[in-house]
Design brief:
globular, two-stranded antiparallel ribbon, mainly alpha
Length: 203
């Protein structure tokens, strides 16, 4: 019986961490670092640099364009960005502390960092989540947080359950409204799921 319990625990761990396998498939450079992780570092840094500006989404897109060696004049350039994002979605993790918001947790996935910065309009509406049909990015990257799997949807649920975790927010009611609308949009248009739901799907 004890062996069966250990087997179940091991199975759950494998299923939770399976979506993270993409991280091990990141393109490696000569010094052993990951090119995708380097891009993640750049887009996370871009949040700090462009915080307070309206063109944050454009700046993030520029980073992907430069890496892929294409421009906005390239036919189907958005499709190339989409394929790249969805292949390595688990790799886009902000490993370092934010210079603008030092209270934010790290490492944390880029999508969560966007929420923490309150840049949903600039980054999501203007770039990553601008069109679920033409640009259906994967929003279900899983991180292990406090020993449990956590997706962006899980993170939004945490905020809704305890909005005071973001102490720099002036208007909590409006903040919660935006978070709830984002949550509904992610579920309806992008198939966002909790880590637990993803586990059930895999079974």
């Amino acid at each position: 019986m004890k062996n069966l319990q250990h087997f179940r625990i091991a199975l759950v761990f494998i299923l939770v961490t399976l979506p993270l396998a993409a991280q091990t498939n990141c393109i490696k450079t000569e010094n052993g670092s990951s090119e995708v992780e380097m891009i993640a570092s750049k887009i996370c840094l871009s949040l700090d640099i462009n915080f307070g500006y309206d063109n944050g989404g454009e700046k993030i897109e520029d980073i992907f364009l430069y890496h892929l060696g294409i421009t906005r004049d390239t036919p189907n350039y958005k499709q190339q960005i989409l394929e790249f994002w969805n292949t390595y979605s688990n790799c886009f993790v902000c490993e370092l502390e934010s210079s603008k918001k030092t209270e934010l947790p790290y490492p944390t996935h880029f999508l969560k960092r966007v929420v923490d910065f309150g840049l949903m309009t600039e980054i999501f509406d203007e770039f990553l989540l601008e069109d679920s049909e033409e640009f259906p990015i994967d929003v279900n990257a899983i991180e292990i947080v406090d020993g449990k799997g956590e997706t962006l949807l899980d993170y939004l649920d945490k905020i809704i359950a305890n909005p005071n975790r973001h102490q720099d927010v002036d208007d909590i009611d409006n903040w919660l409204r935006v978070i709830k609308e984002l949550r509904d949009y992610l579920i309806e248009d992008y198939g966002a799921k909790t880590a637990e739901e993803l586990l059930v799907d895999k079974n």
